[in-house]
């Protein structure tokens, strides 16, 4: 079955992404509605579906408003935005990250949000509760920003926990723009024009970031790469979602890492021509036809992709090719030196000029 699973893997990936834009729109709409319903304990049904959904959304927002009001200590809010996860390992990593941010930015009230509706929904219903995973409520960036406005924070900093400036980072930017446009017409007159907004860039926003990340990875994994192959699995975006041509960062990272040690390789689960079989082809081209492949997630946390795609799919692929295989379930945020790169982006945003999305059209 494993051989069949990995037969002509490029063809299967193409099928997976056929008409992906349409499928994603439908999925996000359905999941977002479900997440709202589950989070507040209601289900829309009957002839009053639209009214019920609006009521559920209002109750959901009230829940976030209450959380922010209860935790507001000052006039500065710092919102960390992750894609999300449903695994306890990831929750623990997010907890460590929030603690680190509170220590590094003591003048800010720190919150964390999930941009993925499906992750919010599944975390709230306990997808892995039978594996002793906690049931957690994480809320959307949009809802936190609205709550910050309700509590009249004077400064709002949003930090993206994305690895590249791709599709998910674009969602973060759009949430900020919706907030600045007062999408729900609920802000007090003059508030938006008065608040200072800042946005921290993803981990590998620039080529210099790539070099910093390569050095940090080598500091952590250099001893492993000295004897084994280190295969890093990122996410990547399909071509139609490759915002800012961000996929190039994975190629650049492999190039920088291989300047340090030729045993480093970087692949993805969603970037064309950079799947596990492409990684293997590059290994063979460099004469690496045996030995042990040690897999690591090149993602902020060790979540669903790490537990499934990396451990099962990548692992079985490499063992099927005759390599030894091992893996580590540690996300990038689990390494303090890599986490500090994200935090340096936060500080750089604060030290720079505020965003201007909110400075026009507010009356």
Task: Describe this protein with a few key phrases.
363 residues, alpha/beta, Rossmann fold, 4-stranded parallel β-sheet, 14 helices, 8 strands, globular
Description:
With 363 residues, this protein is an alpha/beta fold. It has 14 helices and eight strands. A four-stranded parallel beta sheet has the order 2-1-3-4, sandwiched between helices. Mean pLDDT is 88; it is low at 1-45. α3 packs across α4 and α3 packs parallel to α6. 51% of the residues lie in helices and 12% in strands.
Under the CATH scheme, which architecture of the domain at 207-332 would be assigned?
3-Layer(aba) Sandwich
Morphology: globular
Number of strand elements: 8
- Spatially, the strands of the biggest sheet line up as 2-1-3-4
Structural class: alpha/beta
CATH class of the domain at 207-332: Alpha Beta
- CATH fold descriptor of the domain at 207-332: Rossmann fold
Strand content: 5-15%
Q: Tell me the helix content.
A: 40-55%
Strand count, sense and closure of the main sheet? 4 strands, parallel
Low-confidence stretches: 1-45
Provide a concise account of the structure shown.
This protein has a domain of 126 residues: 3-Layer(aba) Sandwich (Rossmann fold). 51% of the residues lie in helices and 12% in strands.
Write the layout of secondary structure elements.
Elements: H1 2-5, H2 9-16, H3 20-40, H4 49-71, E1 76-82, H5 88-104, E2 109-114, H6 117-125, H7 141-150, E3 155-160, H8 167-180, H9 191-194, E4 196-200, H10 207-225, E5 229-234, H11 248-260, E6 264-268, H12 276-285, E7 292-297, H13 304-320, E8 324-327, H14 336-351
Parallel strand pairs: 1-2, 1-3, 3-4, 5-6, 5-7, 7-8
Helix pairs in contact: 3-4, 3-6, 4-7, 7-8, 10-11
């Amino acid at each position: 079955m494993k051989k069949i699973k990995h037969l002509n893997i490029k063809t299967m990936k193409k099928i997976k992404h056929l008409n992906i834009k349409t499928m994603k729109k439908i999925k996000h709409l359905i999941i977002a509605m479900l997440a709202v319903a589950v989070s507040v304990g209601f289900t829309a049904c009957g002839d009053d579906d639209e009214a019920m959904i609006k009521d559920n959304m209002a109750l959901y927002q009230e829940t976030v408003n209450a959380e922010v009001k209860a935790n507001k200590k000052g006039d500065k809010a710092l919102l960390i935005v992750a894609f999300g996860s449903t695994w306890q390992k990831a929750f623990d990593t997010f907890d460590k990250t929030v603690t680190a941010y509170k220590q590094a930015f003591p003048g800010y009230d720190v919150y964390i949000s999930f941009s993925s509706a499906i992750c919010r929904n599944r975390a709230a219903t306990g997808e892995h509760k039978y594996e002793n995973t906690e049931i957690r409520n994480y809320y959307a960036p949009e809802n936190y920003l609205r709550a910050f406005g309700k509590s009249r924070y004077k400064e709002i900093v949003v930090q993206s926990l994305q690895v590249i400036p791709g599709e998910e980072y674009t969602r973060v930017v759009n949430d900020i723009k919706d907030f600045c446009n007062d999408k729900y017409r609920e802000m007090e007159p003059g508030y938006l024009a008065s608040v200072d907004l800042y946005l921290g860039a993803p981990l590998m926003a620039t080529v210099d970031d790539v070099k910093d990340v390569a050095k940090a990875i080598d500091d952590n994994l250099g001893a492993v790469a000295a004897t084994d192959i280190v295969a890093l699995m990122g996410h990547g975006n399909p071509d139609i979602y490759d915002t800012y041509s961000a996929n190039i960062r994975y190629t650049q990272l492999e190039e920088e890492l291989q300047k340090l040690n030729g045993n480093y390789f970087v692949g993805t689960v969603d970037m064309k021509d950079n799947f596990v079989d492409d990684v293997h082809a590059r290994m063979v081209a460099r004469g690496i036809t045996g030995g042990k492949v040690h897999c690591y997630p090149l993602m902020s946390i060790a979540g669903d992709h790490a537990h499934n795609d990396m451990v099962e799919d990548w692992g079985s692929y490499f063992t099927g090719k005759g390599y030894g295989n091992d893996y580590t379930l540690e996300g990038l945020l689990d390494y303090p030196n890599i986490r500090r790169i994200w935090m340096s982006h936060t500080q750089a945003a604060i030290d720079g000029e505020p965003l201007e999305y909110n400075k026009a059209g507010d009356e």
